[in-house]
Please model this.
Amino acid sequence: MAQLAGVRRSFVRAAMDAPFLSREEEHELAVAWRDRQDKSALDRLTSAHMRLVISIAARFRNYGLPVSDLIQEGHVGLMEAAARFEPDREVRFSTYATWWIRASIQDFVLRNWSIVRGGTSSAQKALFFNLRRLRMRILQKADGDPNVDVHAEIASAIGVQKSDVATMEARLSAPDMSFNAPVSESDSADSAIRLDFFADDKPLPDEVVGDSIDTERRYDWLQSALTVLSERELRILRERRLSEEGETLEALGTKLGISKERVRQIENRALEKLKKALIERNPRFAAAATAN
Model:
């Protein structure tokens, strides 16, 4: 580790000691790289601007990521800037490269700061990187005024919803938490983990699909078997068994002009006919009925 730290310090020192380039030198090197792919020119151009990479990377050191990694990502942005730079546009390379370096480092921070992906839009990125600074500025300006809506002020400044500000602030104030971490500090092997409290009691997707198919199949079987019943048998079964509020024997007997005992007899006979039809037409139903 000490050796690695020494290498990093040497790298930073070499970058800071690299000579500055005049506008004319910068232009010549950029043209040599663009037109002839002169790698020595590219090396001189990028080496002279590594101090810029280090300076920008240092601004993101409070996000809990190694500065060396930030510098490395900034170097990626610097190389991208060199590949895209047009020296004939009379713009200094440092001005052009700053945007690419910062964008590369910001993308790295967003990818690695949390296991939860966030800040995918430009507005969300701006919120992520400016929320703390804006919050502090607004609170200082408010000077203790309790009526100041900080979230609303930040949302207005960045151009996002107030709810987005609240969500981002919650994410920034709490670290990632593993679902496999124990709920308590107990060392017991039986100690519950957080994932235990996120169990979904709903059926699995394949079970839902299977139940849906089975339900449709049973419905088709029933509709086919019902065709063996007479009109009166079908009416009695529908009103007694297939309606949400089953009709009583007495009430149904009154409607049909027969005794409730006669209704019961017709119902039992209809059920036997229905069961026989189901077994004859559907062997799987017969096997299930035998098993039960």
